[in-house]
Amino acid sequence: MREGELLKAIDEIYEIEELKHRGYHLHAVAIHQGHANAGHYWAYVRKGVDDDRWEKFNDQRVESAAWSDIEAEAVGGTRTTSAYFLLYVSSAAEPWLFADDCTASKFLAEDVRQLVFADNEALETQIEHYRCTQNEDARGNADVYEVPNEDRGSGFSPVPPPLNDNEQMLSATPTEAVRNC
């Protein structure tokens, strides 16, 4: 297909009647900086349905972002950044997807939900085990667990109680779940 034919085909997509009735809104942009064999990723996520504010999720930092920042980084300019993928949300799904009473677990099939529960329990045990070997409790308070020095870092420690409830973890809204992590 030649360039002219391709451009014509792209333009004709906008004239398909069925597609005119479906609205989609940009919800997230993942940015890649670097090259194909190495680089760094971060994401911009729109805060809500009727909210034009964006947040930048970059490793351990979350900060407010302006649309102009997203545009500049998505195109790259003189740097090696580009939009790695764009996430659009159907306008028909937005009312229930972003509802305050909507929980993350609502979107999981039962078998997947059980796998998530099991994985979360295993992770909680590993985290608590690590904290125990570091002689800290779940809140970072030192000297809570009595672990003999010879056992620290050896992989041995008493089985700790779960860090928190899986249902609580999955009962947060998607936005709360991200904020609480």
UniProtKB/TrEMBL annotation:
GO biological process: proteasome-mediated ubiquitin-dependent protein catabolic process; protein deubiquitination; regulation of proteasomal protein catabolic process
Pfam families in the record: UCH
A single GO molecular function term of this UniProt record: cysteine-type deubiquitinase activity
Catalytically driven reaction(s): Thiol-dependent hydrolysis of ester, thioester, amide, peptide and isopeptide bonds formed by the C-terminal Gly of ubiquitin (a 76-residue protein attached to proteins as an intracellular targeting signal)
Keyword hit for Cell division: no
UniProt region (Disordered), positions on chain: 139-181
Class of the enzyme per the UniProt entry, highest EC level: hydrolase
InterPro entries: Papain-like_cys_pep_sf, Peptidase_C19_UCH, UBP14-like, USP, USP_CS
PROSITE patterns from the UniProt entry: USP_2 (PS00973), USP_3 (PS50235)
Keyword Ion transport tagged: no
Biased composition range(s): Polar residues: 165-174
Entry's EC annotation: 3.4.19.12
UniProt keyword terms in alphabetical order: Hydrolase, Protease, Thiol protease, Ubl conjugation pathway
Domain USP intervals: 1-91
PANTHER family assigned: UBIQUITIN CARBOXYL-TERMINAL HYDROLASE, UBIQUITIN CARBOXYL-TERMINAL HYDROLASE 14
Protein name from the UniProt record: ubiquitinyl hydrolase 1
Origin organism lineage: Eukaryota, Metazoa, Ecdysozoa, Nematoda, Chromadorea
